[in-house]
């Protein structure tokens, strides 16, 4: 049986914190939004809200789905930290440690591995990939109910892609320039148009930039398919609110695979194979609730 748990969804621009209902589901009444500023302010605000609400609605664990890279090795001195993020001021920030004094078990995972686990469980799939496309691009993998860890966690968005014909954008990843993230994050799209990422919503669906953008996300999908044979790819994040992107990505994936994976999931039912989350914007916070359930002593 699920219990009352708390969830923190840590994003590069905003964080959401919530306490679940008795069944471990989201409830509007017990949720709180925080704009991501400095680590001290952001984690402090989240901590204080949870400390205040704990007496009113005692939760048994906290699940944190966090932007990365993060340290998931429990034997490491920096377990629970954000590590080499390009986000200014957030390198080597102890996220898990900020909540130890609340005296409940804490589950920590990436903001893409956790949704992959929740999506696979929701749909009864044995595996799922979750890609987020927004300020950054990330990919998480869950196989047989478990998130993929190892050296670190999947960082598939930093694969170097082939450039689409006519696209001379040099890329914006501070580490690799023209990796998939550097070619397809919000800044990359905005740079091609000489606008700010916040102005992207003024660009119409039929602008050619979306087809260019989708080509890079499609290469990530194709790499995941070849490497993992994953059962489904779910794509979320701010940019994916533009539904036309799904159409472009699916078309490019079919063209890239070029008939090699002759399977109904790819050739006939790709709309269900590469799809948005069933939970919409709640996937992040629900995945953190689900994480929290895994560390409750029953
Ligand atoms: Zn990169």
UniProtKB/TrEMBL annotation:
UniProt keyword terms in alphabetical order: ATP-binding, Carbohydrate metabolism, Kinase, Magnesium, Metal-binding, Nucleotide-binding, Transferase, Zinc
UniProt-listed Enzyme Commission number(s): 2.7.1.4
InterPro entries linked to this entry: ATPase_NBD, Carb_Metab_Reg_Kinase/Isom, ROK
GO molecular function, one term: fructokinase activity
Catalytic reaction list: D-fructose + ATP = D-fructose 6-phosphate + ADP + H(+)
Cofactor(s) needed by this chain: Mg(2+)
PANTHER family: FRUCTOKINASE (PTHR42742:SF3), TRANSCRIPTIONAL REPRESSOR MPRA (PTHR42742)
Name of the protein: fructokinase
